[in-house]
């Protein structure tokens, strides 16, 4: 019965962590370019149950079989499937149709600058004419993206008084003249990508930046790939599993109470 308590407890902890992931997905359902997360579950390593001090076998421990000690969260993974497109007709909004990321020159609180990646193409132009994100980080050109160079020489600067167009390759034209190319790259192995901050991605050691074959769509934003209905259904399933484990603990607690306080009572 005590093992049952432990098994139910690990089940509750596992469902609680799964619920946290689902809640985060729902909270970001309206975040541009957000990629939902999922979880896997796995059992703890089986442990060999033994009996000791058995005089019938020369007091040597004797195996009784393997037992499982419950369940725990295996891993949290990111689903990089593409979200739906939302037409905004805002010339500064761009979306990536295919695999790839925009390269951003990100500066942290310690004034350290590095290259980060995002699928959120809600850009704008600052007072100096540079193309920036909604948080003020500079959008890099193709050279800066491929070479992972976040220097100012790779910022995209436009004339705010002149209209511009962006073609499918990310080329930016003003007065029919090519002025820059959006830095869009892909990563050879997505296992080397990790989330950074709200809607950015960072690369781990060993990541390889490669050219992207994706198309750029101007006047459009990519929505998150979160299916709200599915997430709600999964949340109900998780809640019921949590309650089932909770009921097991309550049942075993009642049995233990009767065993200690009532069985054998004169």
Description:
With 266 residues, this protein is an alpha+beta fold. The protein has 3 helices and 20 strands. The strands form 8 sheets. Strands 7, 8, 11, 15 and 18 form a 5-stranded antiparallel sheet that branches. A 3-stranded antiparallel sheet has the order 12-13-14, with no helix packed on it. A two-stranded antiparallel sheet has the order 1-4. Strand 7 and strand 8 form a beta hairpin. Helix 1 packs antiparallel against helix 3. The longest helix has 34 residues. It is elongated. It starts with a helix and ends in a 5-residue tail after the last helix. The relative contact order is 0.20. The model has no long low-confidence stretch (mean pLDDT 88).
The averaged pLDDT comes out at 88
Q: What is the molecular shape?
A: elongated
Q: What share of residues is helical?
A: 10-25%
Decide which structural class fits the backbone: alpha+beta
Query: What is the tally of beta strands?
Result: 20
What's this entry about, in short?
The chain is α+β, with helices and mostly antiparallel strands and 266 residues long. 25% of the residues lie in helices and 32% in strands.
Set out the fold topology.
Blueprint: H1 2-27, E1 37-43, E2 47-51, E3 62-67, E4 71-78, E5 85-87, E6 94-97, E7 101-107, E8 113-118, E9 124-125, E10 131-132, E11 138-139, H2 142-147, E12 165-166, E13 171-174, E14 177-181, E15 184-187, E16 193-196, E17 200-203, E18 209-211, E19 215-218, E20 220-222, H3 228-261
Antiparallel strand pairs: 1-4, 2-3, 5-20, 6-19, 7-8, 7-11, 7-15, 9-10, 12-13, 13-14, 15-18, 16-17
Helix pairs in contact: 1-3
């Amino acid at each position: 019965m005590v093992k049952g308590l432990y098994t139910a407890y690990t089940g509750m902890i596992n469902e609680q962590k799964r619920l946290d992931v689902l809640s985060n997905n729902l909270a970001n359902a309206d975040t541009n370019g957000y990629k939902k997360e999922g979880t896997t579950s796995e059992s703890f390593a089986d442990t060999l149950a033994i009996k000791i001090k058995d005089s019938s076998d020369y007091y040597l421990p004797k195996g009784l079989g393997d037992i499982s000690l419950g369940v725990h969260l295996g891993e949290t993974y990111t689903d990089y499937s593409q979200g739906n497109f939302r037409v905004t007709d805002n010339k500064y909004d761009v979306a990536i149709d295919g695999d790839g990321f925009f390269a951003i020159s990100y500066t942290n609180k310690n004034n350290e600058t590095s290259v980060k990646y995002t699928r959120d193409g809600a850009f704008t132009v600052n007072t100096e004419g540079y193309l920036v994100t909604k948080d003020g980080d500079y959008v890099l050109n193709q050279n800066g993206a491929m070479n992972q160079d976040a220097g100012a020489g790779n910022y995209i600067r436009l004339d705010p008084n002149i209209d511009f167009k962006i073609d499918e390759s990310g080329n930016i034209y003003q007065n029919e003249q090519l002025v820059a190319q959006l830095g869009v790259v892909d990563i050879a192995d997505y296992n080397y990508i990790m989330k950074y901050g709200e809607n950015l991605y960072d690369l781990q050691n060993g990541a390889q930046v490669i050219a992207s074959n994706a198309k750029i769509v101007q006047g459009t934003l990519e929505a998150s790939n979160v299916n709200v209905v599915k997430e709600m259904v999964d949340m109900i399933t998780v809640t019921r599993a949590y309650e089932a484990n909770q009921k097991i603990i309550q049942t075993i607690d009642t049995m233990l109470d009767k065993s200690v306080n009532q069985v054998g009572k004169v």
